[in-house]
Amino acid sequence: MSTPRLLAQTLPGLRLAPRRAAGAIAQHARCYTKPSASPAPAAISPCSRPAARHARWSSPFQRRAFSASPAVSHGHVETPKAGEELYVTFIDKEGMEHKIAVSKGANLLDIAQAHDLEMEGACGGSCACSTCHVIVLDQEYYDKMPEPDDDENDMLDLAFGLQETSRLGCQVHMTPELDGLRVKLPSMTRNLQSSDFK
Amino acid sequence: MAPIRWAQPRACAKWTQTLRASCSARARSYATAQTSRGGRPFRLAIIGSGPAGFYTAYRAMSRIQDAKVDMYEALPVPYGLVRFGVAPDHPEVKNCQEKFEEVASSPNFTFVGNVSVGTPSDHPDGCTVPLASILRHYNAVVFSYGAAKDRTLGIPGESSLKGIYSAREFVGWYNGLPEHADLAPDLTQGDEAVVIGQGNVALDVARMLLEDVDVLRKSDIAEHAIETLSKSKIRRVHIVGRRGPMQAAFTIKEARELMKLPDVAFHPIDQSLIPADPKTLPRAPRRLMDILLKGSPTPPSSSSTSTSTSTATKSWSLDFLLTPQAFHPCAADPARVGSTTFERTALSSPFDPHAYALGTAQTVSLPSRAVFRSIGYRSAPLPEFAALGIPFNERWGVISNDGGGGGGGRVQHEERTAGAAMAYGRFPGLYCAGWVKRGPTGVIASTMEDAFATADAISRDWGSGDVPFLNPDGEGGEAAGWDGVRRETGVGRARVVDWDGWRRIDRAERERGRLVGKEREKFTRTADMLAVLG
Ligand SMILES: Cc1cc2nc3c(=O)[nH]c(=O)nc-3n(C[C@H](O)[C@H](O)[C@H](O)COP(=O)(O)OP(=O)(O)OC[C@H]3O[C@@H](n4cnc5c(N)ncnc54)[C@H](O)[C@@H]3O)c2cc1C
Ligand SMILES: NC(=O)c1ccc[n+]([C@@H]2O[C@H](COP(=O)([O-])OP(=O)(O)OC[C@H]3O[C@@H](n4cnc5c(N)ncnc54)[C@H](OP(=O)(O)O)[C@@H]3O)[C@@H](O)[C@H]2O)c1
Ligand code: FES
């Protein structure tokens, strides 16, 4: 007896859906492939929040409830003074570019969170989780940063898709030398394997 | 009562594959958009409030319009292993709780604490609801109940001798888990301890035994653990593995932390187990081998290389290539373990990270009256699974699902058909996440990614409009959720802990901690937790 049927017997009132024909599944499969996989056009939004912000939580009520939570200490960055802006560009997992004006001293995790980019920062920037992994796109900029310390390197050793120019976002602070920095958020889901992430 | 619909198993591996491949292409277009079924609310039950449960809730609520999540937790307090597993001297790891609090503050989220699903609550003050009842009141259910059992060695003496503790019990005990509050490990019988297994949990256990109690005192460690650890006579810890350093499961940060403990010495490792030129290794193993070769700044006092001025008060070693064979009673107290014999192993290829260990018939005995078995946790099926036909893979200790390689965690039944092709039976509306989906390995970051993959699958399925879910036509188009379950099961409101109840327990624990100079003093009895709520 098929398992769902067994379940149907166990649960009173359970109805089985009609059997799907293979053809219907095939159609279904095709309709999934329809949206093209071509990279999304780059949307550059200097100094402004990306449009994605409002789409993530459905009701404004939810957003309020979330941003009002006193426990959230990260994600606060100061608005740069006119004329003192430094620019950093994040390239998100969908290939979208977000160019953001920030002030000196802000770290990449706080910047990303303040602009609702998908960077978790599970340990709140304590160098203990590697969920803020970023890849610096230009070697030249990577070389301008102070070298990662042992703690950062230890966490990077566990990061998905580690590259030569990988850093932890929470450990990189903006300085005038880093003006124009470009970093990529690694796409994690593709290479998720518990064995390489113990 | 709202009927439940299940689809038939589909005997077509190929379709499942095509579907899966094309889904990932589609996933991108969902990244910021929300899915909905004609504006109908989506009722989701999540079983277990560890990181897998919370990260699934977070992602599902951000991806699915009008998602309402009820999170069931068997204990009166949330967070699973973040509270009861993560070591007390790693408070920064627990910062993920901030995110969980944020999730719980959403009006679409309900915490149903002190309610065990599908298995009798393990404490007398707890409530239990049948899984069958949950299935009748939600559109979908996520199993994220973790791994609450142990792997065992199955060798003589393991279950009969005193002094052998599972790491899970010991960790639960020092972290104030009610289930193990009475473990009372005896650390005064001798000065040696053996830890079997070389994962990060083994290193946590070793650190608790080696670390200065005054450092631990300031953490949220349970008070009974401070008392016991301050009387501990253990000075020498062997962390024993069946393979070599190139295969060890622990990670560099935890090894470095042990190396750095003040006045604690590391006994040098056998260098023949490390490639002669470690510089040629990939980055992660190279850095780890460097640490192991470098050893601790404090030399062991008995080592031949040390001067008589070593300040070491305690020491530890990584003992490689030993597989446990039997525990033997102690001569003075035959009810207690006195030594452990190990068979020496040889590796199929010493520097290959995937090498396996082969027996050599040569044995080694390590005397010690305290043994900690740290060879991994294990998930178990909920007792109701058998009756409901929900498939559990005993071999891997996971709910059977389509989750391999970051997949969606859709519960599925696999069967080999006559033609040797695999047939998959889908269970619409049933999903899993975390350790019960993937097995008991992985840090919070990997549990998070895995939970996100599950939530993305749920949102894709719901958004597709034609993937079947549970209770498609509940009362007024909406499944009743926790209200329905409560009405049906008659669970008393009094003993259920909601989020506000947890916040009161949380405040009471912090206040207790403040009085003794700690971040928090946990309640280690469920009755004491519930007493806060009057
Ligand atoms: C000792 C130890 C230390 C660790 N330290 C770290 C660390 O420092 N850093 C790190 O990143 N990772 C660490 N980890 C790993 C991390 O804890 C796991 O990746 C993560 O907790 C797994 O999450 P989960 O939600 O799947 O399971 P759990 O966290 O185990 O959550 C499961 C929850 O389900 C509840 N539950 C069980 N059965 C039922 C039921 N029938 N009904 C209702 N509720 C139920 C449980 O009470 C529990 O709250 C550690 C793990 C261990 C064991
Ligand atoms: N600080 C942290 O980040 C932290 C702390 C604690 C836990 N965690 C994570 O939590 C997860 C669970 O940790 P864990 O230590 O329980 O599991 P683990 O990493 O899987 O390690 C299990 C250990 O037990 C050994 N073992 C298994 N079966 C054995 C047997 N029959 N005989 C002898 N040895 C045996 C394994 O050896 P083999 O390799 O030879 O199988 C391995 O050394 C891990 O992913 C870990 O990284 C993280
Ligand atoms: S936020 Fe955890 S390491 Fe950066």
TrEMBL record, chain A:
Gene Ontology BP terms: P450-containing electron transport chain
Highest taxon of the lineage: Eukaryota
UniProt keyword terms in alphabetical order: 2Fe-2S, Iron, Iron-sulfur, Metal-binding
Keyword Metal-binding found: yes
Keyword Protein biosynthesis listed: no
SUPFAM superfamilies tied to this protein: 2Fe-2S ferredoxin-like
Gene Ontology terms, MF aspect: 2 iron, 2 sulfur cluster binding; electron transfer activity; metal ion binding
Gene3D superfamilies, A to Z: 3.10.20.30
Needed co-factor(s): [2Fe-2S] cluster
Any one of the GO CC terms: mitochondrion
PROSITE patterns documented for this protein: 2FE2S_FER_2 (PS51085), ADX (PS00814)
Pfam families: Fer2
Domain 2Fe-2S ferredoxin-type: 86-189
Family from the record: Belongs to the adrenodoxin/putidaredoxin family.
Protein name: Ferredoxin
Automatic annotation (TrEMBL), chain B:
Residues holding FAD: 52, 73, 81, 117, 435, 442-444
Residue positions binding NADP(+): 198-201, 242-243, 254, 442
FAD/NAD(P)-binding domain segment(s): 43-209
The reaction(s) this protein catalyses: 2 reduced [adrenodoxin] + NADP(+) + H(+) = 2 oxidized [adrenodoxin] + NADPH
Pfam families: Pyr_redox_2 (PF07992)
Cofactor(s), names only, from the UniProt record: FAD
Location within or outside the cell: Mitochondrion
SUPFAM superfamilies according to UniProt: Nucleotide-binding domain (SSF51971)
Keyword Mitochondrion included in the entry's annotation: yes
Family per similarity comment: Belongs to the ferredoxin--NADP reductase type 1 family.
Protein known as: NADPH:adrenodoxin oxidoreductase, mitochondrial
